[in-house]
Amino acid sequence: LDLNATPDALPAMAVAACFAEGETRLVNVPQARLKETDRIAVMTAELLKLGVDVEELPDGMIIRGRHPESSTCDSPIIRGAMVEGHDDHRVVMALAVAALGGCGEVSIKGAEAADVTFPGFFNLLEKALGRDERE
Known about the structure:
about 140 residues; alpha+beta; UDP-n-acetylglucosamine1-carboxyvinyl-transferase, Chain; 3-stranded antiparallel beta sheet; two-stranded parallel sheet; 4 helices; about 30% helix
């Protein structure tokens, strides 16, 4: 997928690709390295912590995903881990969405960065999951 016109979509698209069968190439987006963080390097590093088969490219990423029906707790698409939000609101929110499809607890250090563009993101997510407060 050529993300040149939409570099801010890289974190969310990388997470979506984790749950798509086969190889997804997010390319032509070198400017993603110049955002709040180097989003290519950061998303590669954090998805690796979660057990995703991901590779960093100079201008993007390759994600080798799996269909959600193939995921079990013995072989999850996303496994529990402590990840870092890198003070980047889009990275934090993308990692939170990734955690929804995983097995095991995912903790995001610096999760408050989501408040930059979406105050109340985690409260709304908790409500959508049927929980009343952040754990």
